[in-house]
């Protein structure tokens, strides 16, 4: 089995499908996706079943291996493809789980194998039936890109920048995309019946639509000023703490710092430390990284890495605000255009929802094409707006709990925050609540599952003292001894 070696180009032995399956519903001849993010890769995979030819356009040159590129500065940080997102990805690319395992990924129970500290207590660990891939973003994206490249009716056109939309004479329908080699090089126009924007939070679709005479899309922003730093480490030989990953979360809004240790391929750890409202590292300094880790809600992450071997530099990333563009509210919108992923809604990355909501939007776009291209843009943007409601509410409820965070609090926000805090306390000792939380977090169930009559009764009668009795991970003295070998 081939493994990822940092700074080297490698080839994995992937079991890829080399031919494109027949279109499930032939919707049209040509489609374009611009933006080679995970959302773009998944959207192109979905469209390959509905169009004779799909072209994926990306400004960067794609590397020949699981290596970083300029357009995805966050790729070397901790990522999580939630269970729902993985299920959708496996539907788009059958056999992708096996491909990821060949690349070194493992599928682990998220409750059983992760030592989680949140709401002031350690969470119970048990077999929950909710699993997720333990893998780096670099390897995940590369494996998916290889699967897309293997489809017979998909063309990848990298090193091209999208410059604008081509439309019909009356500007009511998008008919293609204008491209240019970055830096003012060769220009070309691609024709298509559907153009999909997956270019990320910096998408220029709002400006392009305005230039075409459409109203400016309404935006909601939640300014969180999140920053984090990540670094890979070699897992110490013989280190067996009883968990595979570690997640230390603050008691919001009193605390602001978070720490995550993610077990990834090739016997490595990917470690992230960060926080809200500017409480994060400003320089990639070794001593500062360890000192920040020591200031987390629990010392276990610091103890695990203080003697571990770093495998690369510290990478910094800042995220100023969550951003939701309300395309679903626009009174007028051109036919033949769809927006997917961060270009539609960019979440606070701390909550790990981005890739999975992008997968849900790509899936919804495919469903909207079952009735043909005509009207698909309208059907899709309404459906995407519905899909985003739950994840957006979950993410922004936590962020808006900070008094310093500016943003409109919805009606009943105080009650919802109180209930959410009580539910987190309940999850500190109640397995049913913890399992429900994991299923909601991984988008297997709607957030309404947390408000069933049984859950409401338990939340109203919660006993915070019981959470303090939940056994934590190894005692610190044992952890220190094992971490030093």
Automatic annotation (TrEMBL):
Entry protein name: FAD-dependent oxidoreductase
User: Which InterPro entries does the entry link to?
Assistant: FAD/NAD-bd_sf
Q: Which domain of life is it from?
A: Bacteria
